[in-house]
């Protein structure tokens, strides 16, 4: 895990100068939050509040540091993917393998907010970190992530890799507790799936 995290940090550092086809990425575009009650760190891409659109969201939490979560979130007058929510993800037209896909929906004040989510292993996150373009499919709908998401995804993965490297270094230097983590075991990613975290996404209502 530590070797992969170090490789991701090196890869991300070299990306902006690789080719002219890469989007120009300014730092600080993604969001970092910390749960005051648990100490769990959440790093995620920004989710634009656009009605009748389904946009991607990439989430990493320090309580489940060895994977990320990819979500496609949207809102409309009625559920769109209740009966068909298979999802596929592509980095530079190469498939990114996902875990089991889950679908949920919530009724807001006047809209239905839908969530199609899947976990993303580190070996697959590496593909997103190097991607110039990211494409995703839900059921039969094919969609393209904008450059802002591509840049923010790199930043989230880079921050997660750096956190994991730091945590592994701290753990290896701990004599009393070699398996120590910087963050207490908690339910940060599960909490994100609750209404409190969903409301922060900007899609509810």
What is the 3D form? globular
Tally of individual helices: 5
- The spatial strand order of the largest sheet comes to 1-2-3-4-8-7
Please report which band the strand proportion falls in: under 5%, 5-15%, 15-25%, 25-35%, 35-45% or over 45%: 25-35%
Q: Portion of residues in helices?
A: 25-40%
> Number of DSSP strands?
10
Structural class: alpha+beta
Quote the average pLDDT: 79
* Computed Rg: 17 Å
Low-confidence stretches: 4-20, 175-187, 194-205
Question: How would a crystallographer describe the biggest sheet?
Answer: 6 strands, antiparallel
Question: What is the H/E order?
Answer: HEEEEEEEEHEEHHH
> Could you tell me how far the N terminus lies from the C terminus, measured between alpha carbons in angstroms?
40 Å
Outline the secondary-structure elements:
Layout: H1 2-14, E1 31-34, E2 41-44, E3 54-61, E4 67-76, E5 87-91, E6 94-96, E7 102-107, E8 112-121, H2 122-129, E9 134-138, E10 141-144, H3 147-172, H4 188-192, H5 195-200
Antiparallel strand pairs: 1-2, 2-3, 3-4, 4-8, 5-6, 5-9, 7-8, 9-10
Helix pairs in contact: 1-2, 1-3, 2-3
Short description:
With 205 residues, this protein is α+β, with helices and mostly antiparallel strands. Helix content is 28%, strand content 29%. The strands form 2 sheets. A 6-stranded antiparallel beta sheet has the order 1-2-3-4-8-7. A 4-stranded antiparallel beta sheet has the order 6-5-9-10, covered by helices on one side.
